[in-house]
Design goal:
By secondary structure, the protein is an alpha/beta fold. The chain is built from 12 helices and 12 strands.
């Protein structure tokens, strides 16, 4: 169903592009200095990880336009994260659904709403989404910045051609150049929150958890094929417990609690392994990560949270490329086979069906354990 939505989105983009080719000539866009900037709308629907990467850039926009209200439009799957970013004045949520009729109705409603609000600048951080490009255009904002893969360019006043070989953070930085000028990217500095700190302290005390490793087995609904195999994670977790005497905490959403439970059932030992998936808010999860010795995950949003916190991070890549989406904290450990068919996620707008049974994620858990041990355990 998700690939159907992506394909439909691509077809819509082609139609709009062909229609706009016969419209009047494109006029030179105004400069930010020539406008009174009161409202800025930023868009990033997909991916908590992308929101983490975008977060420090919102501060840069707010610093440049300190008097303007910064509004952020995202899926309701990301609820609760952006509210703690001081640069964001308002978060508007688009309900995530695969019901095309509902999406269309909500699209029209959002378009009418933001046209009435008279947005001055739209920054669309989506990398593959013609619908959001069309939406940006329909707001009639005088300045519209977005990433172009070809079809979207006429919908923006400042299109940026994305280079798939560069890290996504650099793509977003280049996108903002017309507004903020060139700059150097650095991760978001997550604040420590007393309420969440106390909640995590209580959870650890309740379970008797001390020195622990976090394993995050899930990935977003955007593409579950990125997940490292359950049987491999169970073996890896068992090795960490037996060889290093550490405890293992499985994390995730409420929907991923069953997945974590299935991995735990494969393990020979039941002691020193815990399932907290679905028990934590996003900010409690951040506090838990802050206290972990190592965070182990496939490519997912929490990887960039862990990297932002500067904790030891081990990540599996296959359908996606670490050159594009990898963490860049110095104490990260990246596993990537780089086989011929990889990466395959969002290539030509769709997630490719795998005929190789995700051989790109066939990492030997014993080898993973050896490298994690050499890098992060010295006892």
């Amino acid at each position: 169903m998700l690939n159907f939505i992506r394909t439909l989105d691509c077809l819509i983009g082609r139609f709009v592009y062909l229609f706009l080719r016969i419209r009047r000539a494109v006029q030179e866009p105004p400069s930010p200095e020539s406008l009174t900037i009161r409202k800025i709308l930023c868009i990033k629907l997909w991916g908590l990880g992308n929101l983490v990467v975008v977060s420090p850039l919102l501060s840069a926009i707010k610093k440049r336009f300190s008097e303007a209200e910064l509004i952020f439009l995202t899926f309701d799957l990301n609820r609760g994260f952006l509210e703690r970013n001081a640069a964001v004045g308002r978060v508007v949520y688009f309900k995530y659904t695969k019901n095309f009729f509902f999406i269309l109705c909500r699209f029209i409603a959002c378009t009418i709403r933001f046209r009435r609000e008279r947005i001055d600048i739209v920054v669309n951080f989506e990398t593959f989404n013609n619908a959001s490009a069309l939406f940006s255009c329909l707001t009639k904002a005088p300045l519209r910045l977005g990433i172009s893969n070809g079809y979207e360019a006429p919908l923006y006043t400042h299109p940026f051609r994305s280079d798939q070989s560069e890290h996504i953070s650099q793509t977003f930085m280049h996108l903002l150049t017309p507004l903020c000028g060139p700059g150097r990217y650095s991760y978001f500095d997550f604040p420590r929150l007393e309420k969440e700190k106390e909640a995590v302290t209580g959870l650890l005390a309740r379970y008797g958890i001390n020195r622990f490793v976090c394993i995050h087995p899930g990935t977003s609904d955007n593409f579950k094929g990125k997940r490292y195999r359950k049987e491999y994670l169970s073996e890896l977790a068992g090795l960490i417990i037996r060889r290093h005497g550490a405890q293992v905490v499985f994390t995730g959403t409420g929907e991923e609690r069953e997945l974590a439970g299935e991995i735990m059932e494969m393990m020979a030992q039941a002691d020193n392994v815990f399932n907290v998936a679905g028990e934590l808010s996003i900010w409690e999860f951040i506090e838990l990560l802050r206290r972990s010795h190592v965070f182990i995950s496939s490519d997912s949003g929490p990887v960039h949270i862990a990297a932002s916190l500067g904790i030891n991070t081990a990540v599996f890549y296959g359908p996606t490329s670490p050159a594009r989406y990898g963490p860049f904290n110095k104490n990260s450990l990246v596993f990537y086979n780089g086989i011929a068919c990889s990466p395959c996620v969002a290539t030509g707008y769709v997630n490719r069906d795998c005929r190789n049974r995700f051989r790109c994620l066939d990492f030997d858990p014993k080898e993973i354990f050896r490298q994690i041990s050499e890098r992060y355990f010295h006892d």
